[in-house]
Design brief:
There is one protein chain. This protein is an alpha+beta fold and 421 residues long. The chain has three domains: 147 residues, no CATH class; 69 residues; 123 residues, Histidine kinase-like ATPase, C-terminal domain (Heat Shock Protein 90, 2-Layer Sandwich), CATH 3.30.565.10. 59% of the residues lie in helices and 9% in strands. It has a five-stranded mixed beta sheet with strand order 1-2-3-5-4, covered by helices on one side. The longest helix has 82 residues. It comes from Saccharopolyspora rosea. This is histidine kinase.
């Protein structure tokens, strides 16, 4: 995108408006001063440059130079010093003044020298360039005071106002800006340090939770799976063996999810870089969930876009839970609404979307079921999605209804975690 031309001279529109107003105000002030204080020098003194109009044009050009004082302060100071030196040399050894002098006590340097000095002190960058600007200010101050002529008190006062005062003001503003920049930098560093400490605390808490889950939960579930397997082999009743087999299968599935969860928690700790995980499974088949939804009277429009890709186990289980929880919420809060489930594969991302239309009038039983929710399901689902590095959004849509949208990475490091530990 091309930058506007005014941005070459100013950082924002406020600076531009101030400088333009300054130039216009100085031009108006000059006209007022000429009207109030007639020029004491004879017009013939400016005949050598073509008349007073040439001096006025030069002053107008120098005034327009104030528009670039923020971007080129040293250049403006050099021009001011050169004009001041030329004025002195032309008056002392030449045909006459270069610039119009209203009063005998007026300093010989240009009246705009104060603004050039202030800009040079405040806006010049670099130590050497700044010291050079101070030398130019000293020269203009000396030429303004005219010590070789034993100047009167009015001349000295005018010289101080023209040069010393803007110099001191510029030094104060420059020091204040440097102090503010230093304080801002310290505040930013402190904020970054707080963020790093908070991130470190979160990583340590994740590691503690991972260790506790690995040492307690995984161990207990492993014992339950072993006991269910032993019961499945030893039981004589077929129903008992079937129930034990289902318990063992459910325990193994729970162990898989626990291993992935513990691995994700541990991956937040600092340590050597891990190899990218190898995708091993696909997003689970959702046909069972869709059939269950249709069985309770909520048909689902299901669609898949893109090329199905393999993902790591933690992502596959998280995707399944997203659709499961979203359909459960539809059954509870929007029974009878139209439901659409979309899975979009795109490179290293998997996007899941479950959207339902505005529900029809709920029956008494459906209303009681909707009122039974605690509201913690979506919050827990969001935490689970963010734990694997995904993005989660749930909320009403403009056309009515509700949408649950999750974007999951295809690859999530889960570390080397086993059930037996």
């Amino acid at each position: 995108m091309k930058r506007p031309l005014w941005r070459l001279l100013w950082r924002n529109w406020r600076e531009a408006a101030f400088d333009v107003a300054l130039v216009l105000g100085l031009q108006l002030l000059g006209r007022i001063l000429v009207a109030l204080f007639p020029r004491q020098s004879p017009p013939e003194a400016y005949a050598w440059i073509g008349g007073e109009w040439a001096s006025d044009v030069l002053m107008m050009l120098l005034c327009l130079g104030l528009l670039v004082r923020r971007r080129f302060p040293l250049t403006l100071m050099v021009l001011t010093a050169l004009i001041s030196a030329a004025q002195v040399l032309l008056i002392e050894f030449g045909p006459g003044p270069l610039l119009v002098i209203n009063q005998l006590s007026d300093p010989w340097p240009p009246g705009l020298s104060a603004f050039a000095i202030y800009a040079a002190v405040v806006y010049t960058r670099g130590r050497r360039r700044w010291l050079f600007a101070l030398n130019l200010v000293s020269i203009v101050t000396l030429l303004s005071a005219r010590p070789w002529e034993r100047p009167e008190g009015d001349t000295l006062v005018t010289s101080v106002v023209l040069t010393i005062f803007p110099l001191l003001l510029g030094l104060y503003v420059r020091a204040r800006r440097r102090l503010v920049d230093a304080l801002r930098g310290r505040a930013e560093r402190a904020e970054r340090e707080r963020e790093l400490l908070a991130e470190q605390a979160r990583a340590e808490e994740r590691a503690r939770l991972a260790a506790e889950m690995h040492d307690v939960v995984t161990h207990r579930v492993s014992l339950m799976v072993l006991q269910a397997g032993a019961l499945e082999v030893a039981a004589a009743d077929p129903e008992t063996r079937r129930a034990a087999g289902e318990l063992r299968a459910g325990g193994c599935e729970a162990l898989g999810e626990l291993r992935d969860l513990v691995g994700v928690l541990r991956s937040g700790r600092e340590g050597p870089a891990e190899e990218p995980p190898i995708p091993t499974v696909a997003v689970p088949d959702l046909s069972e969930l869709l059939q269950q939804s249709e069985a309770v009277g909520v048909p689902v429009d299901f669609a898949v876009e893109g090329d199905p890709a393999l993902v790591t186990g933690a992502v596959a289980r998280t995707a399944y839970r997203v659709v499961q929880e979203a359909l459960t919420n539809v059954h509870k809060h929007a029974y009878g609404a139209d439901v659409a489930v979309r899975i979009v594969y795109g490179g290293d991302r998997v996007r899941l979307s479950v959207r339902n239309s505005a529900p029809a009038r709920l029956s008494e039983a459906a209303a009681e079921l909707a009122a039974s929710g605690s509201g913690a399901g979506l919050f827990g689902l969001q935490q689970r999605v963010e734990l694997v590095g995904g993005e989660f959004h749930a909320g009403p849509v403009a056309t009515g209804g509700f949408e649950v949208d999750a974007v999951l990475p295809a690859y999530v490091p889960t570390g080397e975690v086993t059930a037996g530990g």
